[in-house]
Amino acid sequence: MRTKTGILGLDELMHGGIPKNKVILISGQTGAGKTIFGMQFLVKGIEYGEPGVYVSLEEYPSELYGDFSVFKWNLGDMEGKNKLRILRPKPSDFGKKGLDLSKLIDDICSAIDDIGAKRVVIDSISILGLEYENVSKFRSHLLEFGNLLHGLGCTTLLLSEAQEERHIFISKYGVEEFVAQGVIHLYYLERNFQRYRGIEVRKMRGTSHSNKIHSMDITEKGIQVYSEVPMFE
After folding, report:
1. In CATH, what class is 2-225?
2. H-type alpha helices, 116-220
C-alpha cells in the first residue's frame, strides 16, 4: 500500500508513493522548500480523502495561512471542514527540560482522532534538538518519539534543517536520518552565482526508488519534480 505525496513527478521515483504508515524525514538547507513540501503533502492528501495534522513548532497558524495563500491553498477553510488541523504547542507545554514530548504526542493523537487523520507533518524536529546538550540522548529520545509516531497509523513527515555543507550531514544534528524509515533530501545549491533546486530519495524502506538527484522547482501550484538529473557537481 502506498501514500501518494501528490507532488508532481515525485511518486514515480518511488513506484507510486511512500509506503503507508512510515515515518519519513524531509531534510534540506534553509530555503530548500521543506515547509512547502510538508503542507503540499497534506493539501494533496485532503484531495485524496485523507485528512491531515500539521504540527508547527515555529510559525503560528495565521502566519501559515498567509504564507500558503500564494498557492491558493485555503488552509482556514480546510480546518473549518475538519480536513486539516494545525497544532502549535502552548508556552505552558515547554518545561525546564524543553518541550514535553508526551504532551505533544497526546495532542497529536487527539487531533488524529478528531478529524480521522491519515497524514501527519511535524515542522520542524530540529527545534526539539535545541534542548539537548548530549546528541546521543537526543537520538535516544528522537527514536522513542519516532516509534510512537509510527504506531499512530498515519504516514508521518518529519521536517529537519540540514547542514549547509552537502557532504557532511543531511540533517542538522546528524542523527535524525537514523530514526526514520525513509529520507528525502532537498537541495538548494549555488553554482556560478545561481541557485538550483534538487531532490533525492536517500532511503525508503519497503520500496525500490531512484538513486539519482532530480531537478525540482517551486511553481505557483507548489513543488514539481522533473525526470532529468541536474549537473550539481
Report:
1. alpha beta
2. 135-150
